[in-house]
Amino acid sequence: MADPNVLSQFLSLPQGEKVIAEYIWLGGTGKDLRSKTKVLDRKPSSIADVPMWSCDGSSCFFKEAKMTYSEILLVPKAMYTCPFLGSPNLLVLAEAYQTPNNTETPTNGSDLPALQPGMCLRRAACAAVMAQVEEQDPWFGIEQEYYILDPATKWPLGWSGYFDPQNQIQLSFGLQFATGPFFCTPGTGAFAGREVAMAHLKACVAAGIRIGGVNSEGMLGQNEYQVGPCRGIEMGDELIISRYILMRIGELFNVIISFEPKPIPNTNAGTGGHTNYSTKATRTKGSGWEAIQQYAKLLESRHKEHMAAYGGADRLLGAYYAPSANEFRWGVGDRGASVRVGNLVPLQKCGYMEDRRPSGDLDPYVVTRMLVETTLLLQ
Length: 379
Ligand code: ADP
Ligand code: MN
Ligand code: MN
Ligand code: MN
Ligand code: MN
Known about the structure:
Layout: H1 4-11, E1 19-26, E2 33-40, E3 53-56, H2 57-60, E4 71-81, E5 90-97, H3 119-132, E6 139-149, H4 194-207, E7 211-216, E8 222-231, H5 234-253, E9 256-258, E10 275-278, H6 280-283, H7 288-301, H8 303-310, E11 330-332, E12 339-341, H9 344-348, E13 353-355, H10 364-377
């Protein structure tokens, strides 16, 4: 990367009334992040005031063969301060549609190919479900794990070729550990990429993302941050924006950010996306503990459906800090379970629960929608 001082010379140039907005949307896999930059003539007063835009769907949704129908509209849904250009510049989260409300097709009738599981369908479905349960005020918090990879070797940061499973590693500075030496451990050779994690933390705070904290994870080069608690649809939106910010910070440090569930096979820690969940009922002192037990039973009854929708079964081996994909278990203080309830919950008789099944590449719109459907709507 060039000397950052060179860039800051341009970033501090005046921009008059103009506002630079980065439109961010999910492409055709529902996981690929896309973005492009638009200059607005003035600061929008609300999200409704941010103009729609469009993009070439054949480049991010469809294969070449479907070029005829390739215009995709970008419909703004949420906005945040841009932590790269500073206020008043914006990050704009957009849904992708063929028409503004995705109900009708402009010219070609039924020939139009359906948008494949992109953001349009999944976010809209999630928003509809969240609107239905507003009275229960669902809150979520997602623990987003990720590996930082060296672009030259594609190995996690700090690794030199293959690394032994964490339990057998002894750090060169000779400290002794009761377990693997990386989780929440300071020191050179223990926390690789702390500056990436810290730059991301500050950038998310400045953007208005409800980031809750960061920690180094079970493997060298693996970190976690948490976003939340967020209400309803805001959980998915803020997680997607936090990932976008992390990828941009990766560019600045010349590292690759990977949310893959199991990027390194065998005994190395996979990458999780634990999703914490509560409702008005579970947060009510006294009866909240009973509500949580009832939710756990409902989640058990739909384990197969959740697993099919979540994906990431490669990681769910029933070992290496992950539950098994094939069986459902819930428990108090049980970090090997599918669903963990904190030790404080039975004591305080209220609180939240942690779904440990989602992987690092989780679609937050799918996971939060499924949790609400199973516990509140399908009883
Ligand atoms: P762990 O002990 O599993 O590592 P973390 O501290 O990393 O847990 O993450 C806990 C998550 O739970 C955070 O994202 C936080 O926002 C979320 N959380 C806290 N309280 C609630 C609540 N009442 N409802 C939903 N999520 C919550
Ligand atoms: Mn063009
Ligand atoms: Mn955590
Ligand atoms: Mn973790
Ligand atoms: Mn957790």
